Amino acid sequence: MTETASKSSSRLVEWMRPRRRLIGWTALLSVVAVVLVVVLARWLRGTPGGEAFIADYPGIVPPPEGTPVGIPAWLGWQHFLNSFFLLLIVRTGFQLRSKQRPPGFFTRDNTRWPRTKRAPRRLGIFLWFHLWLDAFWILNGAVYVVVLFATGQWLRIVPTDWAVVPNALSAALQYASLDWPTENSWVVYNSLQQLAYFAIVFIASPLALLTGLRLSSVWPPEGALVRAFPEKLARAVHYPVMLFFLGFVFVHVVLVFTTGALVKLNQMYLARDADDWLGFIVFALSVVVMAVAWVLAKPPLLKRIAAKGGTVRG
Ligand code: HEM
Ligand code: HEM
Is residue 234 part of a domain? Predict the structure, then answer.
């Protein structure tokens, strides 16, 4: 274990010690809650009403005419880059939230392009990195949305029929009863998947951007825009949005790995509908790339890169 890793795990132990009872009770109650939900869902499914509901709303809305079939290679690339940037965005987010003193401070050189009227604000190195990652993440996301609409691929993740609501309920009931809805993500996502993908792309991501901009120095320091959107509100939303991202990714990845992982990894990482191990190998390589970035993206290297655009102290 590296020194920082052992430091952060001992911090975790420190944090847990006085909360032992609370953690124990929370774990116990969570298990009880899960069991109750499963029993309730199984019972509901067995009633005539429940059976009829699932027969009427199987959990999937048939794709509209003209919806493309398959996951194209460009989508695979964007999906990978999205995970790559988000990993480091979340890490720098936690570093910012920990309020530890950053191991360096950056001030942009304002005699060079892009020159601004306002003097540059001094940034901790973690915030400097957070903002660059955000810029790349947003660029990747903007390309994704443009191509999504240009290719008709949007029809797969944007609901176009209110039937998505009862079908999502039905899919939720089926997941909860542990008798999962069948789906074929090459052709169509089930309604719950569709709503989750829609929410992360078209609600959570814009919220992260808007609240992040509010907290950054691009937002004007005074005037109507400041009153219209208080900084406190932005701060109160930015962090829960990250928790939403983490919750989404956890459930998303667990489901990918429990519902035909080899097929799905081929679909997303190699743009093909097959059930051999190739997609898994590409996925594993992508994890290696992320791990290498994680190890390299430490203050010494970050400070050296930041120094190319200004002065770095501390
Ligand atoms: C590295 C771990 C990840 C794996 C293995 C993974 C895997 C997959 C797979 C196999 C699909 C195809 C659809 C399906 O079968 O459900 C998919 C779709 C999708 N994933 Fe992920 N994913 C990962 C991380 C993420 C992250 C971090 C996000 C965003 C926060 C994300 C957002 C999405 C979205 C929005 C779609 C639908 C894309 C579309 O069809 O336009 N995934 N993912
Ligand atoms: C998309 C553009 C984004 C921008 C422009 C942005 C900008 C910022 C800024 C300026 C701060 C520092 C706030 C301060 O002064 O204390 C910050 C903090 C933070 N960011 Fe972002 N961010 C963005 C996206 C994200 C995303 C996608 C996540 C996580 C998924 C995230 C997680 C965090 C967290 C956890 C903090 C610490 C907040 C706290 O102390 O409560 N950010 N961000």
Answer: yes
